[in-house]
Amino acid sequence: MATLRESSAKYLADLSRRGASRHTVRNYASDLEQFSVFFEPPGETAPAIEALDLGMMREWLASLYDAELEPASIRRKLAAVRAMFKFLLIEGLLAQNVAARLRTPKARQRLPDVMSAEKTNNLIDAVEGLHKTRDLAIFELLYGCGIRVSELVGIDRGDLSPGESWLRVLGKGNKERQVPVGARAVAALQAYMETRADNEPALFLNSRGKRLGDRQVRRLVKAYALLFAGDSTVHPHSFRHAYATHLLSDGADLRAIQELLGHARLSTTQKYTQVSLKDLQTVYDRAHPKA
Hints:
The chain is mainly alpha-helical. Helix content is 57%, strand content 3%. It folds into 2 domains: 4-101, DNA polymerase, domain 1; 117-287, Orthogonal Bundle (hpI Integrase, Chain A), CATH 1.10.443. α1 packs across α4 (71-90).
């Protein structure tokens, strides 16, 4: 009879084999470790995973509410546990999936904070003034292509088309897509590549000459945003939000934006419609004499 940690290790190993991102595996590992700790208090014998019944699972879920976690955090932790139980059931290691019977908390409808086009361009222009070609190319790609930070750090030199107007990226679930690269991003990339005299396949390298990591990009973006915009809340995904919202505001088709972002469902892309409507309402309230 397997313990919770043994079951978690089997599931996480399978998750990695199926091509899940390091970020996803890391988050699931953290959530499943917390799940194991709840049922394995110090000094007590850890129960086998087969021994967990619906009542025990509800106690665990209640503890998350008692900790006053956000609904989104509870949903993520529950998703990790459900996914593990489903895997164990499919593998014949469990007779039933009690996690599937837990009620999912409703997610709050929260619109992403979106930088204005002026703020976005001012920040990128400020980075350009430092003449750091790698950093400028990072900013230009994040905003010019709307790619995720995990996609950015995974780009290889060979992923750029010969004319460098198209970029091949590997998204969630190892789904590959082509995204157009704007003139400014192309120029920034060319300037950066002229500084390279190595044979490393990665497009972006760190100070040690190895592939740049996603955490390094997050720290870099935060540092520049704090320096030039006085805003420590800006992160790589802020440019993805800005990319989608600004395209939509300028008349781009929602389906086209879905393809560019690599969203599996149109409903995920539709949140940017709400952001645009919110912006229109703000303009109306500020400018209309009868508002």
